[in-house]
Amino acid sequence: MALSGGSTPLQMFRLLATDxxxxxxxxxxxxxxxxxxxxxxxxxxxxxxxxxxxILLEKVPIPGKNIHxxxxxxxxxxxxxxxxxxxRSFFNLSGKELPSFDLILLGVGKDGHTASIFPExxxxxxxxxxxxxxxxxxxxxxxxxxxxxxLNNAKQVLFMATGKEKAEIFAQxxxxxxxxxxxxMVRPASKALFWMVDREAASIFLSKGAF
Length: 211
Prior knowledge:
Layout: E1 2-3, H1 7-16, H2 21-24, E2 33-34, E3 36-38, H3 48-55, H4 76-90, E4 104-107, E5 131-136, E6 141-146, H5 148-151, E7 157-161, H6 167-174, E8 193-197, H7 203-207
Parallel strand pairs: 1-2, 4-7, 7-8
Antiparallel strand pairs: 3-6, 5-6
């Protein structure tokens, strides 16, 4: 699976690191990749891998060879190339083949971005690369990110959103119809797309009697 950064997934990681989930999860048969990463040292508080490592990886019996962090601190462009090579090797890809992750976990920003694919970014148009170096977000730093073709080739995609600040964007994305927000462009070919939201994030949607 490919993990997302941000604060919302960390709550899930804390649960996974405690029983009964800790004991029942097939850690030795699980490989973890990352959806995106800020190009900062792993011990920086903004590092997706660093935060996941502290909260989850250091507490579960997952083999080190099953962990595939994104490394881009010293050279973002080279980091994106290296990570694409790692994915291609792991999935034994050739030519224009795309990886098919069993699960990709995504968040959504209040601006509608997902992974590190931001509104009006050139990354929205990418068709060939699996991983790109980009700049944007908060903090405004260089990052590397999986691209939309990779996200849309996953067997399952799960979005997680919490809090009132996500209510408007969630309602806009799930309303259907034309939408150019990056998160709305995640439409896996498998059609296995799921949203897990709390009542605050779903408040506008619920007020319209959608459920």
